[in-house]
Design a protein that fits this description.
The strands form two sheets. A four-stranded antiparallel beta sheet has the order 4-3-5-6. The chain has a two-stranded antiparallel sheet with strand order 1-2. It starts with a helix and ends in a 5-residue tail after the last helix. Helices cover 53% and strands 8% of the residues. The chain folds into two domains: 13-364, no CATH class; 375-513, no CATH class. The radius of gyration is 25 Å and the shape is globular. A hairpin with a 7-residue loop joins strand 1 and strand 2. With 518 residues, the protein is α+β, with helices and mostly antiparallel strands.
Amino acid sequence: MSEPGRAEDELVAPFVRRGLGNDYYVTRAVLLRAIGFMYLVGFAIAWHQVLPLIGANGILPVQSFLEGAVEHLGSWGAVTWRLPSLFLIDASDAALRGAALLGVVLSALVIAGVANAPILFVLWLLYFSLVRVGQTFYGYGWEILLCETGFLAVFLAPAFRLRPFDARDPPPYLVIVLFRWLLFRVMFGAGLIKLRGDACWTELTCLFHHFETQPNPGPLSAWFHELPKSVLRGGVAMNHVVEVIAPWFVFGPRPARVIAGVAMVAFQLVLIASGNLSFLNWLTLVIALACFDDHAFARLLPSRALARLRELRAGALRPSRVRRGVIAGLTLILALLSLNPIVNLLSTRQRMNQSFDPLMLVNTYGAFGSVLEERREVVIEGTSSADPFDDASYVAYEFPCKPTDVARRPCWVTPYHHRLDWQLWFASFSEIESEPWLVHFVYQLLSGEQAPRALLARDPFPSAPPRFVRARLFTYRFRRTQGDGPFWERTLVGDYLTPVARNDPRLIRYLRGQRLLR
């Protein structure tokens, strides 16, 4: 009778000695479940936030956006071509919430292992449609990245069968290569934008400030911030290795590809621990799983699973002629659509997080081309005083995961994403006239509307709206000695929005000009 360990080694041996070549059954199963999880996160966010953000009574209503698009482009036909979306047919609150709910249900099925091309196509179409009409609140790089990843998943999944382990429908190797091409663009694009952007990346000093000034710090961000400068310099150097050098090996020999994949996964885990960057790092980690084949997963699996894999490999049928033709056509189309992203990567004027086709099938990516040296926060405050000046008592609005109250410790919310919190961080870079969504949000607070309250952690005016609202700009920094007392220290920079009342003519005129008030 053979020993258990030896028996398992005999099962693993065929994978280790010969490798699986183009066999990616486990890779496909893991990738599809992980993509299902990312969809679940995205649709859960939509379920909670889509109506107060872009619903009929939201901050940036979809209907107003579409009317403005028609006026700008000249016709519904032009809008349909430039902004294809299911919500061109119906942009009602019921349609938005229904799409989010259906997305949650289908995502859960994929996580459970029930996945095929039609299910993945519906998920892609629903999320893509949300992104196309989400405006400012869906204008982040991880949104188009989820769309592109989800589109590839349609062709990775079995055509009609509901299980990823089926000898009659083996994983298409070309789609795995397309996932690696996507990973290359994500990582290499992020690396180049840094080398071409802020000098602190080449001087190895960006991490002296990044953890404190990033959009949404986490509980460990202050700890990372206080690491010795030599360690932080080493972190920047490692960033360059993982983002600039490692991506090239995703197309290299198998050992180099696996090592590159491990490095990228580990890098994303560190980023997840160091702050709340929505689901960007989680999704990048998911895509990096395409670096691994069943050979790499073999020693992580129980003996029964290994035996099943051997059976699948032995009995795997060649994909049908139709399936091969579809995958070949997909590869050709994506190769042609890759020309603009390649030109962008080579350009000294590289743009990050840009789409070059209406369906956002092949995009260019990047993150943190520059790093701020100080953290600025827009703090929104209201008062019930009759006079907004003369020492009126103002109370700040609190958001779910923003450093407003200096005593409040950063939360850990990733991969969930509080979209309004994030957008307020961006608002600190510009004048309020450039942020119509924020002006409308202030108007909604003054009007006592219910929709935006869902986006707040605490409404200081639960019974009646304030008479005046103002916004002030502060700099925030981690308090040197953590423990008892405030977590943050802040300094007032000045007014961002002077006190304004609901019936202020300037406010009304501005919102009407932006199609946000009739």
